[in-house]
Design goal:
single chain; about 170 residues; globular
Length: about 170
Amino acid sequence: MNESSELRIESGWRPGVIGRITEMHARYYALDHAFGSDFEVKVAEGLAAFVPRLAHARNGLWCAWIGARLLGSIVIDGQDQDDGAAHLRYFIVDDGTRGRGVGRILLRAALRFVDEQGFERTRLWTFEGLNAARRLYEQQGFQLVRSWRGDQWGREVTEQVFERAKSP
């Protein structure tokens, strides 16, 4: 990160965020986890379908910026879980920015929104081996509730669901 510019967190869509968020996901998961084009397409399609729903009060998108450079993102989808849980999605931080607290700031912004909206719980899907992200989730009260072997991302991994109960 360029120390002469200040990090800012902005909510909502801006031109280019769908492409940049997709790119960050595709690069990271291809290089570090051998996910291919099927994964990139799923991210792009899912994010493109979500963005028009930002007008709904229970949905949110937060991006971390320095100047005009998007460094990370996180989404709360408050409409896609049948039981009314908040769904944490599209959480990613740029490769050159990891380990500098940007992910923690984004996660806290999203969870503050969840708590303000009064969701009973927050749910996220991930897979085994993303240890830094798991530590962040657990520090914020998430617990592993289910795991299984699956290949929805283009190769077999141990998929996981984490949940966080409503904050007191």
